[in-house]
Design goal:
Helix content is about 50%, strand content about 15%. It is built from 9 helices and 10 strands. Helix 2 crosses helix 4 and helix 7 (about 165-170) crosses helix 8. It binds zinc ion.
Length: about 270
């Protein structure tokens, strides 16, 4: 069966990435995650901003929390984009996202949708595993329309299923090596760092990410229930087949993960 696109959903910390890796390998797909999309377009804008030097051209493009019309942003960035050899459309998208990200504001759905659509179309509308999107019912509606417009389809939404308490336990105990070059991941219970709190690989200090506190995890879990779950339901109600794969396995080996993914998707995708 020719698989075109798969959406992978699950709570933050449910263990999506190992399952995504299996799907990428099984069907030769490419991962399209919102995190990477944002990095790509913010990066494009970053280069243009550098080429711009003097930023007076940007004045007035963000007023009282609202963005100027696209053509004004294009006008302000055109010459610098050319100089930086960055596609103008990408620079504009990055500029828009940056206005929220740089101010620590939540990026509104229409902007996130615009970025996703650009990346989705650039890939020809198929061959993708979507990760981190859709995260609201409105994003689901947008995605369904986008897929239709591209003449492609969503073959499956795969939900990585994990209990809240298991996620809290796993995430609160997570520690990472503070060396950016190393970044080794530890867990206080299952894979502890050295007794003096340093990395067994490189000797740097091992730290807890600021996102990994219990309060923040519980906020993310609540957000999943409030928004992402209805987003998945919206896809399923409109006819996208759903499969669930357990996020916790008795034995966590590559083979066990692969097998559990295969078992979950077989009724929908065959094979
Ligand atoms: Zn290290």
């Amino acid at each position: 069966m020719q698989v075109q696109n798969i959406v992978v959903a699950g709570k933050s910390g449910a263990g999506k990435q190992p399952r995504i890796d299996v799907l990428l390998q099984l069907y030769g797909l490419k991962q399209l995650s919102t995190g990477n999309i944002f990095r790509e377009y913010l990066g494009a804008y970053g280069k243009v901003r550098e080429a711009l030097g003097d930023e007076s051209a940007l004045a007035g493009l963000w007023r009282d929390g609202a963005l100027a019309p696209d053509q004004d942003i294009q006008k302000a960035l055109r010459a610098a984009a050319k100089k930086a050899k960055v596609e103008l459309a990408s620079a504009v998208l990055g500029f828009k996202a940056a206005q929220y990200v740089d101010r620590g504001k939540f990026v509104p759905d229409p902007i996130t949708n615009e970025l996703l659509a650009a990346a989705f179309r650039a890939a020809g509308g198929k061959g993708l595993v979507l990760d981190g999107y859709p995260r609201t019912p409105e994003q689901s509606d947008f995605l369904l329309a986008l897929v239709k417009e591209c003449g492609t389809k969503l073959d499956l939404v795969l939900v990585v299923d994990n209990e809240d308490e298991a996620i809290v336990k796993r995430t609160v105990g997570r520690r990472i090596c503070s060396s950016k070059a190393c970044g080794k991941v530890f867990h206080l219970e299952h894979k502890p760092p050295k007794a003096d709190g340093t990395c067994s690989a490189c000797g740097a200090k091992v730290i807890q990410r600021s996102d990994d506190t219990e309060e923040k995890i519980r906020t993310r879990l609540q957000e999943f229930r409030d928004k992402a779950l209805p987003a998945i339901e919206r896809l399923v109600r409109s006819g996208v087949p759903q499969a669930k794969v357990p996020g916790n396995l008795p034995v966590f080996t590559d083979e066990a993960v692969r097998e559990s993914v295969r078992t979950a998707i077989r009724p929908v995708l065959g094979g």
